[in-house]
């Protein structure tokens, strides 16, 4: 078997770089691809067959870029796949509930604009990113920090390599979370985002970060929270201080985040062996305690603890959009001066600061790093809030200087009060529109109504077959379905 034949079998572009990589593995590829084991296996039937035997591959010894070229499935260091649309609770309630049950490690497919790995974006870059994350996940499981782990898909990869990317994910055991699509839209319209100007890039990656000199009240009075989705004349999204129904067209066109379950099913349908469909309402209003108990029995992770029952009754949506916030506490900063003394991305300054994380009890730190919980040093206005040192060395930096500790205590107390106050404002904004307002919008906007009908029909086509009782329970969806039939003679 020649290199060109190997490339053709693996659907690999035979350019110089790819052929050079294949040359390195040529003998092993030939042995595997010409074996009876391969020809009689399910691997040979895959749309992108692996060019090495996945059962014999030591993933730690193969660069992620090479693994992609060789069509190797992503390292199976996760126990199940969790997938669904945004605004179905998969970035708010569910991660927190899983954390409370000891499933505190997940690998997430990020938005395409956030993928830059090995100089690559899209499917290739995402594969390389997940390859690294899943190898790290293996170590965390081996150390006993988590019993189970999962791969979460809420963002859809849209480039020309997407079919290959999804074929390299083992989705044999999967949970699909679905929600009334009209409620999904209502949530997306009222979904707040933290302004990028408060993003700090350090060695650990990007996240919301503040300095002791940042006045919390001044920050939140400047309204760092904005709402997206509004399209300008050029089709670009614009931020708004308050949510608007006019954001609906923008969200309908966002296939990366919205109404893509049907596409994912098409990618995974020949792969899925066990599928568990649940709806968002199963986890709301305190029902999450029982829903997670059921999933714990199925997937063999820790059942919810009775002492944590109150946490399963909490609504965490607004808090999720504000936390975690990392405070870079540095003795050179003057408390509440509101004057930035250094570039926000000055990695040397940030490295020398004590990194203190204000988060909630749902944060994975509660299970992965309980020894770094320094909440007892602070006066916190809500039992849901916690404070962690990012690393043990950060706690040392904080504690060895009484002056820095005192300033940090004052800062965290003020910051946490402002966070709670802002969360109440976000909750009020969330209630500016309800599902009936979304339905009325569609009644008056024919173009958007027809587009939504097409998207939602594709989105729920498999769930209608596999969980019709759930679809029938979607009150607002049924109203929309009736509207489309009456106004457009369209059946969903």
TrEMBL record:
Q: Which organism is it from?
A: Campylobacter magnus
* Identification of the protein by name: DUF2972 domain-containing protein
């Amino acid at each position: 078997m020649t290199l060109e034949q190997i490339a053709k079998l693996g659907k690999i572009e035979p350019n110089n770089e790819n052929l050079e990589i294949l040359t390195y593995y040529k003998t092993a590829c030939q042995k595997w691809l010409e074996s009876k084991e391969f020809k009689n296996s399910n691997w040979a039937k895959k749309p992108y067959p692996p060019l090495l035997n996945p059962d014999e591959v030591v993933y730690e010894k193969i660069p992620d870029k090479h693994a992609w070229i060789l069509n190797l499935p992503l390292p199976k260091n996760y126990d199940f796949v969790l997938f669904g649309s945004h605004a179905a609770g998969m970035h708010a309630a569910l991660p927190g509930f899983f954390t409370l049950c000891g499933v505190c490690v997940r690998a997430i497919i990020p938005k395409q604009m956030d993928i830059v790995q090995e100089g690559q974006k899209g499917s290739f870059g995402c594969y390389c990113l997940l390859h690294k994350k899943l190898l790290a996940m293996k170590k965390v499981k081996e150390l006993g920090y988590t019993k189970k782990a999962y791969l979460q898909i809420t963002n859809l990869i849209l480039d020309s390599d997407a079919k290959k990317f999804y074929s390299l994910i083992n989705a044999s055991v999967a949970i699909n979370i679905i929600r009334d699509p009209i409620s999904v839209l209502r949530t997306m319209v009222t979904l707040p985002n933290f302004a990028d100007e408060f993003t700090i890039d350090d060695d650990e990656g990007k996240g919301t970060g503040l300095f002791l000199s940042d006045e919390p009240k001044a920050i939140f009075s400047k309204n760092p929270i904005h709402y997206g989705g509004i399209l300008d004349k050029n089709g670009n999204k614009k931020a708004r201080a308050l949510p608007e129904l006019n954001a609906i067209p923008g969200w309908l066109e966002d296939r990366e985040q919205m109404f893509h379950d049907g596409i994912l099913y098409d990618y995974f349908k020949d792969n899925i062996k066990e599928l568990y469909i649940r709806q968002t309402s199963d986890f709301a209003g305190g029902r999450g305690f029982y829903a997670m108990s059921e999933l714990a029995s199925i997937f063999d992770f820790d059942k919810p603890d009775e002492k944590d029952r109150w946490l399963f009754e909490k609504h965490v949506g607004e808090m999720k959009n504000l936390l975690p916030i990392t405070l870079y506490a540095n003795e050179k900063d003057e408390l509440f001066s509101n004057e930035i003394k250094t570039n926000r991305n000055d990695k040397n300054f940030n490295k020398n600061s004590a990194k203190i994380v204000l988060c909630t009890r749902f944060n994975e730190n509660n299970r992965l790093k309980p020894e770094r919980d320094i909440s007892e040093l602070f006066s916190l206005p809500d039992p849901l809030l916690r404070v962690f040192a990012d690393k043990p060395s950060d706690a040392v930096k904080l504690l060895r200087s009484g002056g820095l500790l005192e300033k940090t205590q004052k800062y965290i107390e003020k910051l946490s009060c402002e966070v709670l106050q802002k969360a109440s404002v976000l909750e009020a904004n969330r209630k500016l529109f309800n599902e009936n307002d979304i339905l009325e919008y569609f009644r008056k906007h024919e173009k958007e109504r027809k587009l939504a009908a097409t998207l939602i029909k594709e989105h729920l086509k498999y769930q209608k077959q596999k969980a019709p009782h759930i679809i029938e329970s979607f009150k607002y969806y049924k109203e929309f379905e009736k509207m489309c039939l009456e106004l457009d003679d369209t059946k969903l």
